[in-house]
Amino acid sequence: xxxxxxxxxxxxxxxxxxxxxxxxxxxxxxxxxxxxxxxxxxxxxxxxxxxxxxxxxxxxxxxxxxxxxxxxxxxxxxxxxxxxxxxxxxxxxxxxxxxxxxxxxxxxxxxxxxxxxxxxxxxxxxxxxxxxxxxxxxxxxxxxxxxxxxxxxxxxxxxxxxxxxxxxxxxxxxxxxxxxxxxxxxx
Length: 187
Ligand SMILES: Cc1cc2nc3c(=O)[nH]c(=O)nc-3n(C[C@H](O)[C@H](O)[C@H](O)COP(=O)(O)O)c2cc1C
What we know:
- Strands 1, 2, 3, 4, 5 and 6 form a 6-stranded parallel β-sheet that branches.
- The protein is an alpha/beta fold.
- Strand 4, helix 4 (122-135) and strand 5 form a beta-alpha-beta unit.
- It has helices at residues 19-30, 58-69, 86-95, 122-135, 163-183; strands at 5-11, 35-40, 72-76, 108-114, 138-139, 145-147.
- Helix 1 (19-30) packs across helix 5.
- It contains 5 helices and 6 strands; from the N terminus they run E-H-E-H-E-H-E-H-E-E-H.
- It binds flavin mononucleotide.
- Flavin mononucleotide binds at residues 13, 15, 18-20, 78-82, 115-117, 119.
């Protein structure tokens, strides 16, 4: 029997009613049977300061161990000013240091993102993919889950109601599990 594929998800938005947090909640509902998803809240990760990188704050230690314990990573990001939010970049920077102790090294990673605009976070997602090059993690290419005009696809309770979006998230999760097993057949 296959082992359960453990996915760690996090949102680049700290907002309580974040649409990107809604995407992660939808992912929890749409997981393949042989996968589980833990959602990590980036709240509480302080601003990175290289002077302190050898004494990381507790929240950064928790974040890094959660990444290391996971078989795969799922990031839901908004787009801020045509890029990724500082909150997400800062969390990635924290987890990638000190040099030689990058928690993302060789992790399979999938991205999804929702915005109220027409581009559906595409510009932010391509910036995020650029970070993955130096992080040396294995970014999955397809499907691209870029959700434009998200305010029309989520109800008042924060549930993703748009069936095409739900189908894309389901496909993303299935592909991520397959991608993870391809990279590490023992998973
Ligand atoms: C600082 C800031 C910059 C933004 N820049 C963009 C942008 O470049 N492109 C875009 O489509 N939406 C932009 N937005 C609107 C976001 O799509 C919208 O706030 C969205 O709800 C953020 O995701 P969240 O609901 O997960 O917090 C911006 C919002 C903020 C707060």
